[in-house]
Design goal:
Length: about 500
């Protein structure tokens, strides 16, 4: 068995004129000479005079369209030994790396993946009874390499891991490891992209939190890691952010002109959409699951009890907005369906359920407290709870910078009422939750709880105190006014 490695890099980008180093102007773009300006003015005056002497009204209708420039994308395609594309991709990508400086403070550096990155990797091949492929992008004279690993799982293309190899150079200002190499990565991402015969596409943008120190942001992203035919992409499976939930507004601008007036009329066509609720697979109260994530030395860094309900929005084949409801079922942690990560700045919980579904929770800490920052839900619209979905298959939906379930480090957070986490195309509702992140204990029992009801009740004493203060102030003012009037009465006598 021989791995096929190709070294194509940037062949297709050369075909796009926007990346040419110099640009020859067309004749219409050359500076206008005074003679040309005079001729244009004379022509315009003649046309205006002719129009003014015409009694008939001339009507012209023009549709105005405004376009937003799209980010420049690189084409990163891998070829086999026969010169045929085996992996195709194009995107605009940015990496963010968190590193440590000499003073032990942390800093963040942003790195753009260049359009001319050298492409290598491994074409799809059967390894250990599993189809796998790999795409590598090397740049900055080989000192930086971004690697993406793919796997075909039950007919689905899955992004299993991402890693970034780099050298600490001048861009990492005051880095404590200046001149040294480091690789940051995660081999257990398991992000479902598309059917193995299709391409995954996300124009709206993806943000992948690889580790607590590395994330990847992509825009106008297309990739097909398996079954590339005739050097072209297969049918596209869109990301959740690209799934349209409302028909676009169509704006048409009409200009009506005659010899004396100019009038502009704008007509806007609105399309009203309705949302249909699907039959659900929910109960009155979702099952309360107990989870724990073990760190090193027997420490249980993350403990959680929670009941969760998902409301997922999607389009059916009639382009109607639909909502599917489903509860997180009872999960057997000992059966391998629960994994996680214990790091200094991030605790995570990953839950596999319903064969192909996955829920990932990321907790961060700041100033002595922890909070739920990011959530990713991987779901399958082939499930019977989705009625005639327009985009059948695997999808991802995320919520970032949430700041929910906030508790003091050393304590747990408790809430017995609903807490909603808003994702791109879904709402995740905690119907009950008690969680403790960044714990240093060796048991999965909760410490004292920061209760969400207690946070609300603290407002009551403040309101009562303000009301009493206002009452005292009113009584004092009334007393002073009454006393002043009494003195005036004595003087008159």
């Amino acid at each position: 068995m021989t791995a096929i490695v190709s070294k194509v890099g940037g062949e297709r980008w050369k075909q796009d004129a926007m990346w040419l180093p110099t640009v020859d102007r067309c004749p219409q773009d050359e500076p206008t000479t005074p003679m040309a300006t005079t001729e244009m003015a004379n022509t315009t005056m003649a046309m205006t005079t002719e129009a003014m002497t015409t009694e008939a009204m001339t009507t012209e209708a023009t549709t105005m369209m405004t376009t937003t420039p799209k980010p420049v994308v690189g084409h990163y395609d891998l070829k086999d030994m026969n010169g045929t594309f085996c992996i195709m991709s194009q995107f605009n990508a940015t990496l963010r790396v968190n590193y440590t400086k000499h003073d032990n403070e942390t800093a963040l550096v942003t790195i753009m993946v260049p359009l001319m990155a050298e492409v290598s990797g491994m074409c799809p091949m059967n390894m250990s009874s599993q189809m796998m492929s790999q795409l590598k992008l090397s740049f900055k004279n080989g000192t930086r390499t971004l690697t993406a690993d793919f796997e075909e799982v039950n007919g689905t293309a899955v992004l299993t891991g991402i890693s970034f190899l780099f050298v600490y150079d001048e861009e990492f200002v005051n880095a404590s490891m200046m001149g040294q190499n480091e690789t940051i990565g995660n081999s257990m991402l398991n992000l479902a992209l598309s059917k193995a015969t299709d391409a995954y596409r996300c124009d709206s943008g993806d943000m992948v939190m690889i580790t607590s120190r590395l994330d990847l942001m992509t825009v106008d992203f297309i990739v097909q890691a398996f079954n590339v035919m005739n050097d072209t992409y297969g049918p596209e499976n869109r990301c959740a952010g690209d799934m349209t939930t409302q028909a676009p507004q169509t704006t048409e601008t009409t200009h009506m002109m005659n010899h004396t007036t100019e009038m502009t009329t704008t007509t806007t066509t609105m399309t009203t959409t309705t949302t249909t609720m699907m039959p659900t697979t929910t109960t009155d109260t979702p099952t309360d699951n107990h989870f724990k994530i073990n760190g090193t030395d027997g420490v249980v860094c993350l403990v959680a009890d929670m009941g969760v309900r998902f409301s997922i929005n999607y389009l059916n084949t009639d382009d109607k907005n639909m909502t599917a409801l489903i509860d997180l079922p009872s999960v057997n942690q000992t059966a391998g369906g629960v994994t996680g990560m214990c790091e200094n700045d991030t605790n995570s919980l990953t839950i596999d359920f319903l064969k192909t579904w996955q829920l990932r929770l990321f907790f961060g800490k700041d100033s002595g407290s922890f909070a739920l920052e990011n959530v990713t839900l991987v779901y399958d619209t082939s499930d019977p709870i989705f009625e005639k979905p327009k985009n059948m298959g695997m999808h991802n939906t995320t919520g970032t910078n949430l700041g929910l379930l906030k508790g003091t480090i050393g304590n747990s957070f408790l809430c017995k009422k609903n807490v909603d986490a808003m994702l791109d195309t879904a709402t995740m509702t905690f119907t009950y939750v008690q969680v403790q992140a960044f714990s240093t204990e060796k048991t999965d029992t909760f410490a004292d709880a920061d209760d969400c009801d207690t946070e609300t009740s603290e407002i009551v004493p403040i309101v009562v105190g303000c009301a009493l203060g206002a009452l005292v102030l009113i009584v004092l003012i009334a007393y002073l006014i009454g006393r002043k009037r009494a003195k005036r009465g004595y003087q008159s006598v």
